[in-house]
Design brief:
mainly alpha
């Protein structure tokens, strides 16, 4: 197993090269980062909904502890939504980055 494969927890598959393994690791990191961004975006949206609910007077008995727990719950919910496909923001980010990556690769190949 290559060092890169060992770091990523990937065993080399028959017919794969170090470049293939590196691309899989890079794609996994990109997907994780895009989902993390979407989770942050969703967290902010959910917080806004919660604030609007509080401003409307629907949630009056908020202690400091329950507010902290609610915040953790909001973040967990947002992460779960993003990992499950979310609103499609992460998918669009991955597609755009991959498109730009392929265009750069094609441009480099034409120069060679």
């Amino acid at each position: 197993m290559t060092t890169l494969g060992a770091m990523a927890g990937l065993a080399p598959m028959a017919g794969t090269t170090q470049t293939d393994a590196a691309k899989r690791v890079q794609d996994a990191k990109l997907t994780d980062a895009a989902q993390g961004f979407e989770a942050m975006f969703l967290t902010e949206m959910l917080k806004s909904l919660k604030t609007a609910k509080e401003d409307a007077g629907e949630d009056k008995d908020q202690s400091a502890g329950s507010d902290t727990m609610s915040s953790f719950g909001t973040e967990s919910l947002a992460k779960a939504i993003a990992k499950g496909g979310g609103m499609g923001v992460a998918k669009q980010i991955v597609q755009k980055v991959n498109l730009e990556r392929n265009q750069q690769h094609d441009a480099q190949m034409r120069k060679s």
